[in-house]
Amino acid sequence: MQNENKLDKLFQKLVDNTISEKELDCLMELINSSDPDEVKHGLLAKHWEDVKKGNLPIKKRIKGDSEVLLQKILYKIENIEKKKKVKTFFPHSNVRFWSGIAATFLLLAGVYFYNQNTVVNITEPIIIENDPNSGVITLQLENGDIETISESGERKITTSSGNLVASQQGNTLQYTGAEAQDKLVYNTLNIPHGRQFDLVLSDGTKVKLNSGSSIKYPVRFLKGQDRKVFLKGEAFFDVTRDKAHPFIVNAEEMNIKVLGTQFNLSFYPEDEDISTVLVEGAVVLYKEGADMNTNTSSQLVPGQRAAWNKVNNTMTIKEVDTNIYTAWKDGYLLFKASPFHSIRSKLERHFNITIEDRSGRLDNQVYTATFRNETIEEILEAFKEDTHFEYVHEGSKIIILDTNINPNKDANEN
Questions:
Q1: 123 is a domain residue
Q2: Would you say 142 and 219 are in contact if contact means Cβ atoms under 8 Å apart?
Q3: 263 and 339: one domain?
Q4: Secondary structure of the chain in the HEC alphabet?
Q5: pLDDT reported for residue 74
Q6: How many whole angstroms separate alpha carbon 275 and alpha carbon 309?
Q7: How far from 287 is each of 281, 332, 370, 388, 408, CA to CA, in Å?
Q8: Block means of pLDDT (10 residues each) for the chain, length 414 residues?
Q9: Which domain holds residue 289?
Q10: How many Å apart are CA 200 and CA 184, to the nearest integer?
Q11: Total structural domains in the chain?
Q12: Neighbouring residues of 165: CB distance < 8 A, sequence distance ≥ 6
């Protein structure tokens, strides 16, 4: 009864369009643990009648917020479906049912906003956090609309007046830059774990995005202004040379400024360092807001890596083998004298899995290896030849066992 009351309140908040992200998580958990028929034909049916009758005491919410919320609902429904491989909670028909209900709630909310003239003028693009575990590549447009991108798909992105902005051919999204603009208009491309994607900006600059990455960039760069983009995650840049318009990549508090060059930038939230590896050309690194003409900037030459430590606010520059840091763009996983805790995070992003080391012995083990098309199991078996361990693979989780525990018993308990 307590769960039923809680579900009732959360459904009402979904209808009202006032549900928070935390409450949405709670709603999906309750749905997942409840009888689907009771929910579908009981509580939801009651609220669905309110929607059809127009009884919508909706809190004002801009269109972009509604679509972001809808996307989160659909992601959670998909995740529930994936986790229930043996005993599926939602058959496909029910997934479509829930998706339709969620979409209709928010569509009706959007109509309500329009009729009440509550449209908000947004001068800055809505920035959403990339959900690296979603498994879905998304493109967020300037107006807040979110489109899902299939790596095998083809599409054209146009302005409201019908002018071509960008076109997708398979694993590449290319911007044309054909239409002149007097203000910056941003798109944001989000790449989940287990995926990679190519982006060609309007100036011809090529960007290869690694898994778990997000990049915000102008649809078209403006004449007389720097070409500035914003990155979270990892990307390899091949920048088109333009002396009059320096290219700048922002990685939180650090900026990397170039004219025309090739470099790799890695900036994941879980990493202590913002890593810049220069392959060709020249780059200057400086803190956001700092004067480049003072001694606060640092310049790299090809073959060097700059590591900005986010904890200590210190910069370290040294000569490196650039292949170690760029092999990923050619499909390789290359490790050279790397500790397992560093390798583990790369494997998790590459295969969209989580690895839990219960043995407590592997984190500081050092490995040198190169992989390309191997499965995660084949990679772990290779590591086992150096340091023996046992593991179990459960769905998207790998557990490295404490060898003092019976593996079968441990697997059954989890």
A1: no
A2: yes
A3: no
A4: CHHHHHHHHHHHHHHHCCCCHHHHHHHHHHHHHCCHHHHHHHHHHHHHHHHHHCCCCCCCCCHHHHHHHHHHHHHHHHHHHHHCCCCCCCCHHHHHHHHHHHHHHHHHHHHHHHHCCCCCCCCCCCCCCCCCCCCCEEEECCCCCEEEECCCCEEEEECCCCCEEEEEECCEEEECCCCCCCCCCEEEEEECCCCCEEEECCCCCEEEECCCEEEEEECCCCCCCCEEEEEEEEEEEECCCCCCCCEEEEECCEEEEECCCEEEEEECCCCCEEEEEEEECCEEEEECCCCCCCCCCEEECCCEEEEEECCCCEEEEEECCHHHHHHHHHCCEEEEEEEHHHHHHHHHHHHCCEEEECCCCCCCCEEEEEECCCCHHHHHHHHHHHCCCCEEEECCEEEECCCCCCHHHHHHHC
A5: 52
A6: 9
A7: 20, 32, 34, 44, 52
A8: 71 68 73 65 60 45 47 51 38 46 47 36 40 79 86 81 85 82 89 95 96 95 93 96 94 89 93 93 86 73 93 91 94 92 93 92 89 93 90 93 58 48
A9: 137-322
A10: 17
A11: 3
A12: 157, 158, 159, 175, 176, 179, 219
Instruction: Look at strands 213-218 and 354-357 and give their pairing.
Output: unpaired
CA distance 402 to 361: 9
Check residue 15 and give its pLDDT.
Answer: 62
CA distances from 3 to 18, 30, 32, 65 (A): 20, 7, 12, 28
Residue 241, sorted as left (phi over 0), alpha (psi -120 to 50) or beta, turns out to be beta
Q: Domain end: 322, 353, 388, which one?
A: 322
Side chain identity at residue 353, one-letter code: I
* Residues linked to residue 317 through DSSP beta bridges, in sequence order: 306
Q: In this structure, which amino acid lies at residue 100? A: G
Q: Where is the domain boundary, 300, 322, 344?
A: 322
End-to-end alpha carbon distance in the chain: 29
Which of 146, 159, 139, 267 shows the shortest CA–CA distance to 210?
Answer: 267
**Domain check: are 185 and 313 in the same one?**
yes
